[in-house]
Amino acid sequence: MKNKSVYRLMAYLFFAHSTITIINGYIPVFFKEQGLNGSQVGMLMAIGPFATILGQPMWGYLSDKYQSIKKMILVALIGVVLTVTAFIFVHSYFAYLLIMFSLFFFISPTTALGDSLSQKTAIQKSISFGRIRLWGSLGFAVTSLVVGYVLTAVGIEYIMFPMLFMSLIAFIVALTIKDVPGVNKPVTVIDALKLGINPSLLLFFLFILFISVPHRANDIYLGLYVVELGGPEAMIGWAWFIGVTAEAGIFAMGAFFLKRWSSLSLIVLAGCFYTVRWVLMGFILDPWFILPLQILHGLTFGIFYLAAFQYINKLIPEHLQATGHVLFITVIFGVAGIIGSLLGGNIIELTSISTLYFILGGSALFGTISLFFFQKMRKSHEKEANQN
């Protein structure tokens, strides 16, 4: 019975990430079907991460201040349900901009805070964070596959209805999850600001941005790539299913990796796999070759996310963990999402999606090399500190 709260949290992550799946995998295709061009789709997918950047620190700060992640999740999910309902009734580019801003403002903390609560729960229950987090990946994988077939059958124009269904289920399940008691220390705005100007943290965020931008650009334009190469919409679902299933496998083995290698070493390794993945994507001429390449999603994002989340914990005080986790997710999904959306949309319009992937490979390589030297610098500083 003592793990009942863990199972409820797993169920919540499943449905929360299911909602995100539909947005990431199919919204760009929906906008394209509405007659919007590449740069317009890029702008719409960039306005969401912009809202994430504005909203995420607020959600994390309020969670730490009031010592309740659950309450913030419930408030955010109410906002998601209302926004998706409004989405059904709009049909203009300007209205889509407003809807996407509102949708991402509310949807982003549902998974970010869910992951933060998972980390705290894992520590409290003495179990692997990856074992809990993999249920979010499974939700992502299963929903991407099922929704792909549903939308192929009924039409991409009905995308809002599965989004509404999943967000409502996530809200119902969220009512049953439990907060983890934190350090009873008051959190102030000054604390949050100090965290935001931590030199090591800022440098780390800068370098992982070069790896995260390609990842987010792929999230946004993978569906368009499949369709452009002649693949059916159902193939988008299969691509996500294979990739996120591989990610779930890595999360399940997270404790194995983290016990044997340092967090930064694993992030550098993930960066190497990312570089290879994007370059290979650039050479693809047949959409079916995308599917086996999606297995690399586990070795890239799976390892990267687990290791980076672990490393963040070493850089932030315990009473500011929710703020730190949300700040991290703001960078890799929010900031990276804006750059990836706008850069990707313009590159596609000027050249092609295959050229975009070659550029993404270069960005991942630069970030990986930078993190390698960052790791060397950190080891040197720690060695000097120990000697003193």
From TrEMBL:
Compartments in which it is found: Cell inner membrane
Transmembrane segments: 12-31, 43-61, 73-90, 96-114, 134-152, 158-177, 197-215, 235-257, 264-285, 291-312, 324-348, 354-374
Domain of life: Bacteria
Pfam families reported for this sequence: MFS_1_like (PF12832)
Keyword entries, A-Z: Cell inner membrane, Cell membrane, Membrane, Transmembrane, Transmembrane helix, Transport
Major facilitator superfamily associated domain boundaries: 8-357
Annotated membrane topology: Multi-pass membrane protein
Main location: membrane
Protein name in UniProt: MFS transporter
Lineage: Bacteria, Bacillati, Bacillota, Bacilli, Bacillales
